Amino acid sequence: MGPVEHLHMSVFSQSFSPCGRFLAAGNNYAHEGPVFSLLSTDSHLLSAGNGEVSAWSWAELIKRNTKAVIHNLHFSLFSFVFSFISIPPLQENSLVIGGGDNNIHIMDLESGIFKSVLQGHTDYIHCLSVREREGEILSGGEDGAVRIWDCRTGHSVHCIEVFKYEDCARPQYGKWISCLTTDSDWMLCGGGPSLSLWHLRSMSPTSVFPLSGCQRQATFYQDMILSVGEGQFVSHCLMGGEVKAQIPCTPHSLNTLALNLNSTEHRVLTVGGSSHQIDVFANLYYRSFSLSF
Amino acid sequence: MSDALKKRKSKVVRSETGTPEGKRGRGDGEQEVRVYSEEVELDGSDPAEDYRQYKLTCKALAKLMNEIQELKANGAKDGCAEVEQKRMQSCIHFMSLKKLNRLAHMRLKRGRDQTHEGKQRVDVLHLQLQNLLYEVMHMQKEISKCLEFKSKHEEIDLVSIDEFNKEAPPEISRISITKDDPHQLTLARLDWELEQRKRLAEKYKESLSSKEKIQKSIEVKKEHLSSLQPGLNAIMQASLPVQEYLSMPFEQTQKQIEIARHLPPSLYVLLVQANAYGQACDKSLSVSISGDVDEAKALAKPPDDSQDDDSGDSDAEEEQEKTKRRRPTTGGQLDDKRREMLKRHPLSLCLDLKCKDGSVLHLFFYYLMNLNIMTVKAKVSTATDLTGAISAGELLNSDTLLNCLYANDQGRETPNPANRYQFDKVGISVFGDYVAELGHPYQWVQRLGGLQFPSETPEGLRAGSSLSASHMESTMKLLRGRVQSRLALHKQFSSLEHSIVPVSSECQHLFPTKVLSRLSRWTAITHHEYTNLSFTRHVSDAGLARETDLFFLAVVERGTARLQAAVVLNPRYPEISPLFALSLSWKGERAGRSDDNLRAIESEVNVFKSELQGPRPGHQLLTNQVARLCVCLDVYLETDGQDDSVEGPREFPREKMCLRTARGPNRLKPFKYNHPQGFFSHR
């Protein structure tokens, strides 16, 4: 990995270890292509990228043994995975994978068998989220629709086409939804359309955030919303729709945002994007230091 | 009283004179008759008695005087009978006093005479004693002198007595006599010695004469041999055409070896190794020596050398003295010292590397004697005339041609750490100033000459020929590769400047057949201009754009879109691939840093370059990279996002086949070209 590669590296995904002391980050030189998504379960780290899902044991990784690949699942050639999540406690050891073949697959981690397929999207899936209380899965796709699925039945309960709402829509960017996150009652989604906060019971947008650029990842934190995307900053927004602060950081555009909630002593925010450096924020309001590949 | 005195005097006179008269008078006639001799009387009288007598007389006299006094005092008159009597008695006393006085005097005189006599006798004896003593001393000295006498014969080492007795002929040794008599023995031994010496002197004369004879015969033989030399030379000359016929340049190699003996050691090592390598592996390599052999010979003689140096120095100093009044001395002396320090050995090596296409790389190796480093100057002579490419001006510049043959070997600093101290003495701060004149002291040049200097990173220590040999092959290959890549670049540049991107037939499969973006400009820029460009900061910050690199600016255009690409070309091309930094101006300025898609194009060209190497030795990397750039620009422009808000026809209709136009969170376009299907996909 020479300096030239460093210049052209992008970080797409991050995940903290269960003990909270390690951060795994995926860039665009891993596997046979970029690692778009990383997920940490209690003992394993799952990574997904260009049509390949691999699992690693955290215990082995901490011992610097990188050959601990347990599963290695290949999808069909042109599908790729941008997002996957696990959904305990509803269905133990299940993995929800959003694929490039426009479908959502639910897989059993222990056996590796696909349990069910959720179909409905007309274009590939960007992001997934889960509402634990209601047992629902939310998915956002390239087709601009946010679909809410019921885990048990496997049917789409709701379908929100965000770009059809005038407040949110930004036709100059497109209609895709690249970021999605829920807080049971509330949902944040953004991408081509502006980042907007939705009330799920009423299925209507309550506030639209005036952020330029497409947001790629957002999360609820305490009573704030943190969002990253195009633009060299992390945006702090309030539920009411104001942008409280925009904290500058090193990469020119950010792809991923992660909060280390597993550990009390390393409670940091890390962001990564189109740079070989990952910024670490110990205090949310300024950048403490950067980690580098 | 005066009368008494007179009377007494007369009496005394009478007695005294009387005595001798009496003696004379009576003596004549009556000598044997009793003679009054006071001397005889003196013998008889006792001095003590005389003294008593004297005292008595004085007392009596004093008494008489007193009586007279009394009488006179009682009023007696003058001429009184008592007084007269007394006076007569006192006169008698006076006479006895006189006699006594006389006796005393005589006694004294006699004593004196006796003493004098005795003294004389003693003196005589004393003198005799002295004489004898002196003589004794003299005799003793003589005796000791005689005893100390060493005769010369004791200084000669004589043979020992036994040997003498054995060796000497009997008439000399005369054993019977000499056995008892040491004097005779010594004499005999001396005789024997003398005879032996005479004999040996004879022998010596004989051997001297024989030696001279032999010497003369040697001279004659030497002359004979030296007369053979011209004959041999003639034979050698005559054999030259034979050598050429048999293609064994014996004569030439001999000459070279002869001159090579005067080369400094590192140049010699290089010559030997290069010759060896050329004969064994690489027929197109040839080495020759050039320079002044006589100067080299002069340098090789140390005592003359030091003398020359001294005289040279003193001459120089004298000159300096003379010019002291004209110009400041320190500057002049320092310049001379510098020149002296940087002096080159008069002999140099010329190495010629011939390439397949007929161009030749000439390398001139020099040795700096005081600094103990080697330098090189390079020159390329091409088979065809290279003109037309303005941007390629720097490519074959002899100054920079050999830059960074090995990584970080820029050749501007001297590799010998000891030189630092030498430079401080003469005030040279940067060796790079003299590089143009003296040649470049690259690390590989030192290694080829077997000179190993300690460096920051500890390497295995091999000095001398093994070091040179181990590096010869790799260095020659690198040199050849460098020349060829530069020549290839030269050709490529000339076509790039004419806006044609040359793509060879082996690389056609990398690109689609129809590419609409065109290279409109290709120029060379300086390092300073490169760093001033706004979109190249990340490259400079990462340390990938250094002063030793070459910089170019390419402009690709299609329609209203204009893509500027700043290229960093490392001297070690094509081992190290060129680095592109992009900036697009189309509906606003976008740079590779801020636009993810431009960044993706950059990585397509910079990172995934192994596909673009082309056939070995990969000289087409740059042109393929430029070609790919054009293709990617096409894709970028044609797949630009569906901007439904804007009406009207798109500027660039979609002509490329793409599976998906945007993928992933950062909406990347498909830049990867798949052959032979001919569509674009994401990596």
Automatic annotation (TrEMBL), chain A:
Which is a GO BP term held by this UniProt record?
A: mRNA export from nucleus
Name of one Pfam family that matches: WD40
Cross-referenced InterPro entries, in alphabetical order?
THOC6 (IPR042626), WD40/YVTN_repeat-like_dom_sf (IPR015943), WD40_repeat_dom_sf (IPR036322), WD40_rpt (IPR001680)
Q: Does the keyword Iron-sulfur apply?
A: no
Give the species this sequence originates from. Esox lucius
Tell me what this protein is called: THO complex 6
Q: Which family does it belong to?
A: Belongs to the WD repeat THOC6 family.
**Assigned GO CC terms:** THO complex; transcription export complex
Family matches, as SUPFAM superfamilies: WD40 repeat-like
Gene, per the UniProt record: THOC6
Highest rank taxon of the organism = Eukaryota
Cite the repeat ranges for WD: 118-159
Key words of the record: WD repeat
